[in-house]
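Human: We require from you a protein record containing the residue sequence and its fold in C-alpha cell form, and nothing else.

Assistant:
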Amino acid sequence: MMAAPQNNSVRHLRTLFISDVHLGSKAAKTDYLIDFLRHHEAETIVLVGDIVDGWRLKRSWYWPQNCNDVVQKLLRKARKGTRIVYIPGNHDEFMRDFPGVHFGGIEVAQRHMHKGADGRNYLVLHGDEFDVVVRNARILAYLGDWAYDTAIAINIGLAAIRRRLGMPYWSFSSWAKLQVKHAVNFIGEFQKVVADEARRHDAQGVICGHIHHAVIEDIGDIRYINTGDWVESCTAIAEHHDGTMELITWHQMRGGVAEAEGATADAERLLAQLLTQRAA
C-alpha cells in the first residue's frame, strides 16, 4: 500500500480514472476529491460517469461552493495540458447528447478505448447499460436511488456516533448495498457481462464505474477494473508509467482527524434534515 503524500508532495501518473462523484448530492465527498486532485497530476484523466448527479439536482437543487471547486480544479488541469475525457453515466446522461464536444478542454465521449502503457487495451465505459434495473425499469432505478439516499444518511449519522464513541469507521450503506446485491448475485453478474463486452471489442481489460464497488481483478482473460465512487469509498484508479494499475482509497490515507473535525457537524445536520423531511 502506498504511503500518504506528505505536506505538498504531488504524485505524477500516466492516467487517472475517477467516477461516481455525484456532484449535487449532499453525500458527495468533494473535500476529499479536491484534496486528491491537489496531490495527483496525470497526463490523462478519464471521468467514468456520474460526475454530476442530475437525478438529485432535478429533485432538489444543491450546488455548494465545493462542487464549483471540483469543476474549476478539473478545468484548471485541462488548461495546463491534462487531457480530460468525460464518459457520461446514467445520473449525468444529459451529457450523452454531446459526444465529441469539448467543454473548456474536457472532451465528451460515449466510450473510450484506453491504450495502457503495457500495451493492454482497456474498454472504458460507465456500465449502466448493463444494469438491467436502470436499462429496463427506470422507475425502479429511481426508487432504488431514493433508498440509497436514505442508507447514506443513516451511514452519516452512524459514522458521527461511532466517532464520538472512539469506534472505527464502518459504512452501513456499503454493507446494506452489498447484502442486497449479493443476495441476487448482482455484482458478479455485472462484472461478467462487462468483461464479455470488453472481449467483443477485442480489449484485454475493462474500466467502469456505476456500482460503487472498487476492485481490480482478473475475470478469465479480462482485467476487470471498477473505479468505485466519491460518495462512500473515495476511490480512484491510477495508471503508472509502466502500465501498473493501482486502486487508491483516499479517505483511508488522508481521512482520520480531518474527517472527524470536518464531517461530524455536517453529518448531524444532514441526518436531522433527512429525518425532518421523512416526518413531513
Remarks:
- Residues 137-141, 256-280 have pLDDT under 50 and may be disordered.
- The first strand starts at residue 11 and ends at 18.
